[in-house]
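Dig into my protein:

:::
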Amino acid sequence: MKIGLVTPYVYPLPGGVNEHVRFLYENLRLRGHDVRIITSSHGLQRSSEGDVIRIGKGFSVPSNGSVGTITLSPRYVSQVQRVLERERFDLLHFHEPFVPFLSLVVLHQSTSVNVATFHAYAGFSPAMEFGKRTLGSYSARLHGRIAVSAAARHFVDRFFPGDYKVIPNGVNLGRYHRAVPIARWQDGTPNVLFVGRLEDRKGLPYLLKAYRLLRKDGTSCRLLVVGSGPQEREARRYVMTRRLQNVEFLGRVSDAEKAQLFKTADVFVSPATGRESFGIVLLEAMASGAPIVCSDIHGYKGVVQRGRQAVLVPPRDARSLAAGIKELLADPDLRKRMGAAGLERAEQFGWENVTGRVEAYYGFVIRRLAAQGQLPPGFNAEIPPTPSPAHPMMAKL
């Protein structure tokens, strides 16, 4: 099929949705599909480069405790029409389809099969509350709906009720399996690793408080902080004023170095405060064999299992966080068992498996439309055959 992956976030800038789009693109191509990525530009990128098609300009805005993007163009409709007429997609796969405005314009102009993946999770959302009153006609144009977790499905279904298929995010298993630890931190001091944007919902201040408690009670460890963001200055000031030793702020790192850091970690910690739909960093930690301490929040419960791959603690609770880290640091056998359980569970989330489930869902949606005589005029590919009942992907649909 000819497939267009639509992301409202400026590709390939870092972010969970763009990472998802990247690996879905690569693995769909490996399965023989002709795939393009439709996104916006940010800065001086060219309008088109290889299989990446850029329409409009992306601007960063605060969103859900993080930073999101809106895309704008004075000629959106004509630009989108030209792209769709030229590319003739059989299927368009929208990621966060209701983020203004690129996805909405493409969805409105589409004559293809339209599938959407919903990635977000939050509490009350004024934007979604407003959107459910104004975006009903756009929602009706979706032929298939995917949510990356039960938490994400529960969130979006409150505003746009429908039939959602849960298909999780994936992880690049090979990258983490091949990585080797960083020698400079293999000196006998246990390494506690944090990876994430330095913003409120990722919870770094609670980890710093927990680390201070660990240092005060004599627990020997080092804290490695990967990421950047608006809380970086505050975090550095906390470390400096409390005279905390062995805290390394590493900033943003390459994918290869991030994989090495996960391999270097004796314990990975994700103290997120909430509004996480999934937790890709947990997959990365498990694929590296790192035991986990993380917040007991909805988006994480579908990824790790309590007591098997992770110690789950109440969010915003530095003392519980410190106790969980101390428990793992004091018990090498427990760390080994959790790491092995994480490696085993991560196999389920390999991108080959996840892409197979997405492809199978495409086929399900297309066959359903064909049976109802409702295939849109832009679909010109062969209708995918029905898999046999013994096919592994049938069991997951």
Q: What stands out?
A: The radius of gyration is 22 Å. Residues 174-348 form a domain with the Rossmann fold fold (CATH 3.40.50.2000). The chain has a mean pLDDT of 91. Residues 351-371 form the longest helix (21 residues).
